[in-house]
Structure formats: structure tokens, C-alpha cells
């Protein structure tokens, strides 16, 4: 069967022509979805050597199929605040690709969430999950709900309404959500409680990121941040560098950021800055990560309160200025497209040696081009950010076994997964003519694993 595209039916298309034709189709089919189109092109642009070596992918329309979700669900979420006012939000779940296993990906509660952002996250998740080597497909979801400033009871009522709809689309062997921005173990607890009520069953494997006392895995909260640092350390070793003695900037101050800071400090780095949506703090003597943990995880305060405990630190209201602080290593761990041209140029001018994407697609296309053209070591999100979902898959395994591994066991497994991902990316980049290019290596390795399985499964 030939790939379906009328403009190229008269002759065998070159790999370049095939990619261009499919990309045009994706653009035409998804207007007004810039985040998804950005993510799609970032993968497509790496794949020409793959299609040159594997014409069977073209014949079976793998690229067309992999860029269209198996299912996209949007639904109304109606809930009541503490004053009795009714609110309506929009919920989403994209079940993008289940070739390798159940759909797997987090839920994000944030007012900026749109269908385009959900699809971009779900598309990235396909390849990120494939890179872990674990049997999980790609999905993502969430709602345009802002949990900031809401009481626990309001968040509970929202989560219950959200889950009332979502419950009919998920299950331990169908789709396994987890947390993301705005969704921590509190929200997971409320969501899981409502799921149990609706299903009248304790299906622990339907969610990951649960409280360890209630079926969750140890190290899950730390996993994405730890994993990012583990991956970047492998990348640095390849160039004779290390976190030891390096000055590091970490954007954000959520789970990914906090535990990336913690692990970088453990590896001998000095973390000098972090941020939240209100601005950034700069502490030239080194960020006290325990203070940040207390502010964010216990007191739920803004990052500028750090100065109350460390008056020598400095606060800046424009969070994008964090990239103007000189550093050796930058770990963008906040959100998508947080580093653009100006931030990338500032990092290069100040001598940055390495970037590790802890968030999903935190560097826009122009920033990536500037950084890589200036020979900055670059660890792409779908590889460096994969630690969280890797431990989520381990949580699924523990739930299936009715067993829990120790923190040390999970951390050791996580470290090995990140080493394996790095090795796979390096070897794949070399094999397909892009030695040292971790972006190409991650895209190709993730794509090829899913593509080969899709060939085996036939049309679906």
C-alpha cells in the first residue's frame, strides 16, 4: 500500500518530498495549532535519512498515521466554588499512539492549556515513552483550570467533575494518566478517589504519581528532575565535562526544577538561579534548595519569599531575564518555548556550555538553532525529560505486582534508563549520519521503535 497523498502518486517520492507532503497535510489539517505543528516539524525534520533507508515506512504511510491521534477527547467540566458560584472549564485527553502499550502521559491544569498544547505534549510523549524502552504508548491531557488560589475543597470538586467524564476513557490497560503542571499528588488523590467511586474497584494501575502510601512509587516526584541531570551528566562526560564545579541555572520551581537542582548540587554544581511565574531569584552563593522546597511544597508561596530567608539574594520580576545570568549549564524546567532568540543569544554570549531541557520543548525553534550553531551541548526534552514517565511505568509494574521497590532500587533503575537513552541517542545519530546530534538521535530512535511496531501491527 502506498502512502496516501494525491500529489505524489504518479512516481515514487523522494524521502524529502514525502516529508514535505505529509507536513503540508498536517499543517492543513491542524490550522491554528502552533505548538503541535512546531513539535511535529521538530520530529519530521530529522527523519529524511530514516525514510531513505526504510522505504517501507513510506509505503505504509507511517508518518501520516503517527501524526494523527488515535483519539482526541474534549469535554466540559462544571464545578462550584466555595461561594456557590458555578464555573465551566474545558477538559482534554489526547490518546495519540498505543502501539507500544497503554496510552501514558500526564494531566496538566493550567489556564493556558489548549487543544494545540495537549496535542504537542501527546505527540512528544509517543517518542519520549518509546525511548524509555518500557511498554507504554503516548497520551496527554488536562484542563484550562487554574488551581492557584483555590481552596482544597474547590480543587477536589473540580477534580471530581473532571474525572466523572475522563473515567469512561481510561483504565490500567487502556490509558494511564499521571501528574504534570498543576497536578501533584493532592490532585491525583482526588482524581483517583473519584475514579474508584465510579468504577467500584481499586485499580491502582490507572494512575501514576500517587502518594507512596497509597500505591505510588518512591522517587516518582523526583524522577523527572533527577533524570534530566543524569542524562546531562552523560552528555557532559562525552566531552570531558561535568556538573562538578559548574554554575547552573534552573528555570521554574516545581517538581522538575526542585529535584534537578537537588541532583545538580549533589553532583557538585552551584545552582545560582531559579524562577516561577512571578519572576526569578539569583543567589550567587548558591540557591538553598531546602528553602525552595519549603516555600513551594509546604507553604505554597511565590519564589520572591526566598529573600525573606536569604536577604543577599536578588529578585527580578521579568522571569525571562534569568537567561542573562552567566552560567555553565542551563536547565530550562518550567514550560514550553520559554527560551527564544534573546535568551539563547544571552546564554551563548555568557559562555554557556550545555543545555538540558527538563521541561517539554522549552527552547523554541530559533533558540535551538542559535544554541546548536554555537556548539552548545544540547539535551533535547524527549530524551532528557523522560525520567518521570520511566518511573511512572515502574509504578505501573509495582502496582501490577502488588509490591514496592525501595528508593535506592527505583533510583538505580532510573539512572540506568537515562544512561540507556543517552547511549541509544548517540548510537542512532551516528548510524543515520548525524554524529553527536542528540536531537536527531532522540527523534530517530523514538520514531523507529514505534514505526517498526506499527508495521508489525498492520493498519490501525
From TrEMBL:
Residues 217-458 form the Glutamate/phenylalanine/leucine/valine/L-tryptophan dehydrogenase C-terminal domain. The record marks 180 as: Important for catalysis. NAD(+) binds at residues 224, 255. SUPFAM superfamilies: Aminoacid dehydrogenase-like, N-terminal domain, NAD(P)-binding Rossmann-fold domains. Gene3D superfamilies: Glutamate Dehydrogenase, chain A, domain 3, Leucine Dehydrogenase, chain A, domain 1, NAD(P)-binding Rossmann-like Domain. GO terms for cellular component: cytosol. The active site is at 140 (proton donor). It holds the Pfam family ELFV_dehydrog_N. GO terms for biological process: glutamate biosynthetic process. Keywords: NAD, Nucleotide-binding, Oxidoreductase. One of its GO terms (molecular function) is glutamate dehydrogenase (NADP+) activity. Substrate binds at residues 104, 125, 128, 179, 392. Homohexamer. NCBIfam families: PRK09414.1. Belongs to the Glu/Leu/Phe/Val dehydrogenases family. This is Glutamate dehydrogenase. It comes from Planococcus massiliensis.
Amino acid at each position: 500500500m502506498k502512502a496516501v497523498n494525491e500529489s505524489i502518486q504518479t512516481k515514487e517520492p523522494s524521502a524529502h518530498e514525502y516529508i514535505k507532503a505529509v507536513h503540508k497535510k498536517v499543517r492543513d489539517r491542524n490550522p491554528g495549532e502552533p505548538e503541535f505543528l512546531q513539535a511535529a516539524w521538530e520530529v519530521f525534520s530529522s527523519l529524511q535519512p530514516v525514510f531513505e533507508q526504510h522505504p517501507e515506512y513510506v509505503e505504509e504511510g507511517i508518518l501520516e498515521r503517527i501524526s494523527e491521534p488515535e483519539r482526541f477527547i474534549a469535554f466540559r467540566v462544571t464545578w462550584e466554588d466555595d461561594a456557590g458560584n458555578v464555573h465551566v472549564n474545558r477538559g482534554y485527553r489526547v490518546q495519540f499512539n498505543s502501539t507500544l502499550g497503554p496510552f501514558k502521559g500526564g494531566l496538566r491544569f493550567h489556564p493556558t492549556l489548549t487543544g494545540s498544547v495537549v496535542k504537542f505534549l501527546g505527540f512528544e510523549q509517543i517518542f519520549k515513552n518509546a525511548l524509555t524502552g518500557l511498554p507504554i504508548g503516548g497520551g496527554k491531557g488536562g484542563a484550562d483550570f487554574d488551581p492557584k488560589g483555590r481552596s482544597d475543597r474547590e480543587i477536589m470538586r473540580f477534580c471530581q467533575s473532571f474525572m466523572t467524564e475522563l473515567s469512561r476513557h481510561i483504565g490500567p490497560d487502556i490509558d494511564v494518566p499521571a501528574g504534570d503542571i498543576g497536578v501533584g499528588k493532592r490532585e491525583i488523590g482526588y482524581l483517583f478517589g473519584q475514579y474508584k467511586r465510579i468504577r467500584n474497584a481499586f485499580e491502582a494501575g490507572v494512575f501514576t504519581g500517587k502518594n507512596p502510601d497509597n500505591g505510588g512509587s518512591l522517587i516518582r516526584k523526583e524522577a523527572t528532575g533527577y533524570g534530566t541531570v543524569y542524562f546531562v551528566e552523560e552528555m557532559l562526560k562525552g566531552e570531558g565535562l561535568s556538573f562538578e564545579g559548574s554554575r547552573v541555572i534552573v528555570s521554574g520551581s516545581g517538581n522538575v526544577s526542585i529535584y534537578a537542582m537537588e541532583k545538580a548540587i549533589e553532583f557538585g554544581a552551584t545552582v545560582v538561579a531559579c524562577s516561577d511565574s512571578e519572576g526569578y531569584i539569583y543567589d550567587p552563593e548558591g540557591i538553598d534548595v531546602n528553602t525552595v522546597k519549603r516555600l513551594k511544597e509546604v507553604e505554597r508561596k511565590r519564589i520572591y519569599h526566598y529573600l525573606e530567608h536569604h536577604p543577599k539574594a536578588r529578585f527580578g520580576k521579568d522571569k525571562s531575564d534569568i537567561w542573562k545570568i552567566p552560567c555553565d549549564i542551563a536547565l530550562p524546567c518550567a514550560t514550553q518555548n520559554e527560551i527564544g532568540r534573546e535568551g539563547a543569544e544571552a546564554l551563548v554570549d555568557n559562555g554557556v556550555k550545555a543545555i538540558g531541557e527538563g521541561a517539554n520543548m522549552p527552547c523554541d525553534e530559533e533558540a535551538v538553532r542559535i544554541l546548536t550553531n554555537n556548539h552548545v551541548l544540547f539535551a533535547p526534552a524527549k530524551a532528557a525529560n523522560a525520567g518521570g514517565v520511566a518511573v511512572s511505568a515502574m509504578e505501573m509494574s509495582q502496582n501490577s505486582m502488588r509490591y514496592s521497590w525501595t528508593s535506592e532500587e527505583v533510583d538505580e533503575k532510573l539512572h540506568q534508563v537515562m544512561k540507556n537513552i543517552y547511549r541509544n541517542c548517540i548510537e542512532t545519530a551516528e548510524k543515520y549520519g548525524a554524529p553527536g546530534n542528540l536531537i536527531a538521535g532522540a527523534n530517530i530512535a523514538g520514531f523507529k521503535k514505534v514505526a517498526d511496531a506499527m508495521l508489525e501491527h498492520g493498519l490501525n
